Amino acid sequence: MAAEVRRGDLIYSIDDIPRPFGRAFFLGVQHVLTMFGATVSVPLLLGPAMGLNQAQIATLVGSVMLASGVVTLLQVHWGSRLPIVQGVSFSFLGPFFAIIGQYKGPAAMQYIAGAIITGSFVEMAVGHFRWIGKLRRFISPVVIGPVIMLIGLALFKVGAPKAGAYWPIAALVIICIFWFSQFLSRASLVFRLFPILLAVLAGWVVSYFFSSIGTFAPDHPAYVSLQVVRESKWFRPPWGEGTGWILPWGLPKFSLAFFLAILASYLASMIESFGDYHSVSYMSRLSDPSEDTINKGIRAEGVGCFFTGLFGGFASTSYSENIGLIGITRVASRYVVTIGAFVLIFLGIFGKFGALAATLPGPVVGAMYCALFGLIAAIGVQQVARADLRSDRNLLIIGFSLFMGLSLPAYFTGVPEFGIAAKKVVIAGAPWLAEMINIIGSTGMAVAAIFGLLLDNILPGTPEERGIRS
């Protein structure tokens, strides 16, 4: 990689290989645990909406994990070559629900696969023809900062609400994360390397103990049951309708309307990834990603989405959660992320191991999010600090972009507690255009990026003021 490495206080830099292998393996597992909750939550949300049975939902979860592992390998070794994990993108939920509104069961997955595959060619073209990289000269820290902040802040709905399902367990995990990473890490390398993994294990063990002695009933938020592990199969075959690795739902089906609707989600995903590449570079003590790095990363994400459609999963993008993990553990090793990718592939193929990971109770996952997502928002603050914060111009752009990135999605989705209904754009002659506007307007990162780009490049400002030149 052309980027200059500044090791700083990293324990393992991007090209380092932790020894012995066991240490590297558990560091990779920690990446899997960090992204597992978000990765599994999408199929667990969309599966019931499609009317899938439990066996089909289990296949959907396995397909998502398999796709995440394969796409991560593509990104780390062929794309941006940054230590960044790929997983299910939440930016695509809008068009997915639109498809589910018209089709149910495996047929819905066939149309979802068709939309993902056709849209992936657009993302591949954006990266291959270097379009996204050329935007780099127009995107200053004034734009990038609010986008990164919203990557973390926009996920607040899965933090405390999920942890608050049972605060005692969630509080235990949060306390352990801080205790392990900030106190015990000073005396033990184990706690410096595995604070998240150890905290999650502590929460799971306590939850399982109280579940096994009957304190937690089956309907308790922190209840842990191993029945799903006992009933799941050890091995998923490569082929087979409803069970295989490849095209488990049958051949993809294509629709022009669904293709046009999903383009807005690809746009939001690319903008989010643009910010993530800067975040992970900063966390890895690298210089800002080059235009070539950004283009290769976006192209790899397009190729990854194509394979995701073939594997029967959902569209993938870079995962902010794992960038936060690099900041906490100070391990930016590409080798570690590669191991995590193989673990994901393993979990996607061998059902019992995926089922075991799925036993993580919601409060444990929510607590992990509370610790990690805020760190992503803090990275955005660091990006903004590279610009001149004494400039009224910059403060106006940053404040407006950040506020609109939080407020405009509320306009589109509604605020029920204040009696404000959702406001959806309707264009009778072009429903696909209306869907694009609704999806972009409902995505905080896209809103902040659009307003930031327009204002930062229209309002007069020197390169030094904008933070693109020292």
Number of strands: 2
- Mean of the pLDDT scores? 84
Low-confidence stretches: 1-7
Distance between the termini: 23 Å
Count of helices? 21
Number of separate domains:
1
Basic shape? globular
Beta-strand residue fraction: under 5%
Q: Strand sequence of the main sheet, in spatial order?
A: 1-2
Query: What does the main sheet amount to?
Result: 2 strands, antiparallel
Integer-rounded radius of gyration: 21 Å
User: Into which percent range does the helicity of residues fall?
Assistant: 55-70%
Which structural class should the secondary elements be placed in? Answer: mainly alpha
Order of helices and strands: HHEHHHHHHHHHHHEHHHHHHHH
Topology diagram in text:
Elements: H1 21-50, H2 54-77, E1 86-88, H3 93-100, H4 105-128, H5 131-134, H6 141-153, H7 160-163, H8 167-182, H9 189-193, H10 195-212, H11 227-231, H12 256-283, H13 291-311, E2 316-318, H14 320-329, H15 334-349, H16 351-357, H17 362-384, H18 392-413, H19 431-441, H20 444-458, H21 463-466
Antiparallel strand pairs: 1-2
Helix pairs in contact: 1-2, 1-3, 1-15, 2-13, 2-15, 3-12, 4-12, 4-13, 6-12, 6-17, 6-18, 6-20, 8-10, 8-17, 12-14, 12-19, 14-17, 15-16, 18-20
